[in-house]
Amino acid sequence: MKRADRDWYKTAVFYQIWIRSFADGNHDGIGDLYGVYDKLEYIRSLGVTAIWFNPLYPSPNADFGYDISDYCDIHPDYGDLKQFKKVLDKAHELGMKVIMDLVINHTSDEHRWFKESRKGKDNPYSDYYIWRDEPNNWDSIIEGTAWEYDKTRGQYYLHLFAKKQPDLNMDNPKVREEVKNILRFWLEMGVDGFREDVINFISKREGLPNGIGFLPIIGSMMHYKDGPHIHEYMKEFREVCDEYGAVQIGEGPMTTIGNALKYLSGNTKSLDMMFSFDHMTADCLFTEYIHRPFKLIRLKKALSKWQYKLQGKAWNSLYLENHDHPRVISRYGSEKYHRESGTALAFSYLFLRGTPFIYQGQEIGMTNIRLSSIHKYIDVSSINNYYKYHLKDDEKSRLHRIHVSSRDSSRTPVQWNSDRYAGFSDVKPWFYVNPNYRSINVEAEEKDEESILNYYRRCLSIRQKSRTLLFGSYREYEAGHPYVYMYERKLGRNGYIVICSFAQEKIPFVLPKQFRGKNAKIALSNYPGKNPEGVYLHLPETCLILEPYEALLLKVRYRQSK
Ligand SMILES: [Ca+2]
To answer: What domain range includes position 18?
Structure first.
């Protein structure tokens, strides 16, 4: 089953499934591939053309699937290979591609390779992991020091993430062969590509030198981020994917644009897209746990930076939510102006240049859950943060930090209807359902023409039919405006202008000179009573009055192409 063309990704719209909380099809309170199978038509109905599955593999779930104990099977909680194939075939029949999560920086400590490796230095799997007699000073990213002593082997092993996630030794050619076998296994089954977890961390500097001791976590990153052999290893994996025309999307934490471009273009090109992180810090520093008030300027600056710098060179991936971040309405929007801000956020990114990703529940505007005690949280990094930092603060403010930052907010069961357990399951779900499911759910939003759900559909429908929105150039206007994000997409004489207010009250907005006095057709508005679709809007010389979180997509024609 060999294919050649992978350009489909440029016109794709991805939907991300974190399966455990998506839909329970076999009545045990855990989301699974039976539930997914029944919801594929719904996903397609959004205008989605591809699905990215977070890890579906057997895993002890120390980091919910990102600690894999067998790369070529399905976790029994989610079904089996036969059920996966059924989902894959049905998705293909509906016109949707499917990509898998590839997690090869580390395995689970319960993977067969690690169980063998820890037995001793003469074991055939001995060098599959990174063992040392003495640890260096590196920190792990989520759980204390990066080294754990193993009594059986009498040595320390490296884990950049949790203790139960030992790092693979990618310098060992046998490990790279194993990776290629994993790629082939899924590609032979018919999957269309991979999202590659922390892929820029897989090559560590020789000798593993100490990092800068006083800088927690990031002090050692220069020794493994975009490491010395990364592009050689990526080339090997690319060659396998080339045989199948498989798409590769990399997750690159802390990646600069300069480094990203090495993966995305030129003779080191090994990835089709990368997930950047800059725009996820408009309300925090480095990580959501170090919270600060949301500033639109930061969001615009980050989005524009990647739009401009990749223009003509590489392709963007566009997202506002995923399984690692709290819900975006609770962060960058407003729960008070739920519908308005949810739709404005959609306008602000679905019309950018690149391929949009929608995380499950984002399309109905799911919001952060606020659990009453730290004991109810399960996210390993939230628990670690709670017990490690701000210990002198009172409990209320420590819990508040978890409310605004926890990955658990994106991992509550999807809210399908207003029945008990939100229609996710008919038995008690494995995790808490957000109590707002009675008003925020798919069934209710299906019935409401102006719901966030139906606006996602409209935005995607317009986008997918327009070469200007798919391939046109990007330009931002009024970059210094604190409350309005305005950008243009342009192809030849055709253009679209997007105007999104992030203000919680009515505000005047003075348009850039070149648009004043012109007429523009309203392609879409989230205040349809005020600005009906298809009507020409006269752009005033003075200013536009924008309602709270008002968003407009305007179609414009230019006199001549420039
Ligand atoms: Ca289940």
So the answer is: 3-104+173-461
Question: Could you tell me the distance, in angstroms and rounded to a whole number, from the CA of residue 420 to the centre of ligand 1?
Answer: 16
Residue 20 CA, ligand 1 centroid: distance in Å: 8
Residues 43 and 181 in one domain: yes
Total domains, the chain: 2
Model pLDDT for residues 291-332, shown as the tens digit of each residue: 999 999 999 999 999 999 999 999 999 999 999 999 999 999
423 and 343 in a common domain? yes
CATH number for the domain spanning 392: value is 3.20.20.80
Question: By 3-state DSSP, what share of the chain in percent is helix, strand and coil, each rounded to 5?
Answer: 35, 20, 45
Beta-strand relationship, 544-546 and 507-509:
antiparallel
Query: Tokens standing for 138?
Result: 């590196």
83 Cα: distance to centroid of ligand 1 (angstroms):
12
Q: Which of 197, 272, 363, 379 is catalytic?
A: 197
Tell me how far the alpha carbon of residue 455 lies from the centroid of ligand 1, in angstroms.
30
Above 50 in pLDDT, residue 37? yes
pLDDT digits 0-9 by tens, 40-94: 999 999 999 999 999 999 999 998 999 999 999 999 999 999 999 999 999 999 9
Based on the residue annotation, tell me whether 196 is a catalytic residue of this protein: no
Q: Is residue 334 part of a domain?
A: yes
- Helices then strands, each counted (H, E), the chain: 14, 21
484-491 and 494-501: which strand pairing? antiparallel
- Residue 449 a catalytic site member: no
Residue 289: both structure tokens together: 């746990």
Same domain, 453 and 485: no
Query: Which residue is associated with the tokens 């592009």?
Result: 231
Distance 30 CA to ligand 1 centre (A): 4
* Residues, beta carbon < 5 Å, ion ligand 1: 24, 26, 28, 30, 32
Exactly one of 77, 148, 251, 324 is catalytic; which is it? 251
344 and 480 together in one domain: no
pTM of the predicted structure, to 2 decimals: 0.97
